Amino acid sequence: MELKLELPGALPLTAEEFAAVPVVEGVRMELEEGNLVVMASAQMMWHTMTARRIQDWFRAQGLFAEREVGVVVGPRSVPAPDVTVFYKPVSDLRRSQFPAADVRCVVEVVSPESVSRDRVSKPLKYAAAGIPEFWLVEEHPDAPADAIVKQHRLAGSAYTVARTVTLAEIEAS
To answer: pLDDT, tens digit, for every residue of 52-93?
Structure first.
């Protein structure tokens, strides 16, 4: 697949410039330190289903949760977590990115191609931006349809693991 984009400015982009980058169907884009990170949309059914199950669980709790929307964690950094939980419903649905101050929890579902980013670099950025909760979700080694969820809470300037639980246990609660 060849990808041609008309950028609103020269690299490195700001978060504001990144908001003007056109959406490309089947492609997921994030801004990292002003550089575009271009990925294929989730390829593995487990990843897609797991993110949807988590989103559905948050919604069942009465929370406003959406998938793959940008969260501005710095002037040149806009990751798109697999699930983002907001403090209150978003009224401007035409926006593609939102300030970290609007976000109560972000969820990253680990894929083979994003292990380091999901486990290391993204949590550091989310913590620095002050997002109170971060969930890291990985495949369950013994139950292919389930997942292991590490729920992290912000303690000072870093996350600490508050609880490790299966997704099935979360859904049953």
So the answer is: 999 999 999 999 999 999 999 999 999 999 999 999 999 988
Q: Domains in the chain: how many in total?
A: 1
Is 152 inside a domain boundary? yes
Element (H or E) spanning 165, and its range? strand 158-166
Domain of 133, CATH number, reads 3.90.1570.10
Q: Return d(Cα 144, Cα 140) in angstroms, integer.
A: 6
Q: What's the number of CA atoms in the CB half-sphere (13 Å) around residue 20?
A: 9
pTM for this predicted structure: 0.91
pLDDT bucket at 41, cuts 50 / 70 / 90 = low
